[in-house]
Each structure stands twice: as C-alpha cells, then as structure tokens.
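Encode chain A's predicted structure.
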Amino acid sequence: MKTQDLTEKIVDKLTSSFDIKKNQTLDGIQYDFSGIYTEETSKYILSKEMIYDSFSNNETVLCKTFEESEFSIDHDILKKYIIKNLSFFKGKKENQMSSMITFVYIGGHLSDIDKDKIKKFKFHKSFLFGIKGWINTKIIYIDILNKKIITNKMGKKDMAFFNSFFKK
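Encoded structure for chain A:
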C-alpha cells in the first residue's frame, strides 16, 4: 500500500465525523490533511433558549507523510509547537473542556530510538486546574512497509481504527 492510498482511506473514514481540510499549513508545517471534530453538550431550562450549562469537546487530527529516513521526533520541539499553537488546538469556544490533539505520521521503517521517543511522549495541559479544560496529545506512527503502528499511551485506543486499514 502506498502512503497516498492510506492517507485517502483515512480521510474517507474520518469525513463522516471530522471537518477535513487537505494540505493544511500550521505554523509553517505542511500537513497532508487536518480534521477537526467538535461536540457540544448543553443543559436547558424549559426551552432551548435558556441554557444553564454547556461544554464542548474538541479533537484535532493532523496527518503528515514522510520518506523513510526523514522522520525524527524531539519531545521539546513538539511540546513548544503545541504550546505556540494552543489557541488553534483548544478551539475558539469559551465553554471548551477537553481537547485532544492527534498527530498521525505515515512513513517507512522507524529507528528504535524514535519508537521509544514516541512511546514515552506525553503532553497534558490543564487550564485553571482543569476547571477551564485540558488538552491531551496522541502520537500515532504508521510504518507502512512493515504494517505496524507505534503510538504513545494516549493513542492506544486508536490502534484498532488504524489497524483496520491493513486488513483485507
């Protein structure tokens, strides 16, 4: 399977829930696509005009393909990148609670050092001790040659979704 075919399959599956933008650039980094999913929950009194409580959840997916020897990850640079673009990842809503950032990287064979870096990566940021919301980060690397998926702890839940692209 080619990286472009896999990227198109991922976009096709995500299109039903996510707003997809192809060739998205964020802070000088070109992504093959980005997807944003927003869910809003509200509680009403008597009618829908009288909202007494509401919150929204946001998930952002950024996908980038690499040639076999191009990929390397640096925890500090990625964390600075996330903090620099925090307003994009958190969303514009005032009632925003949880935000999930998913970085999907597609490439060839990955070195053991980079595998360990992906598995150990953790980024969590809370706002006002979680009262104003929080952000978590998933990193998913798809080794297209060996049909393997490497992810950090937060991304384990998504392994079944991405493994489904390799099944016939």
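The chain has five helices and seven strands.
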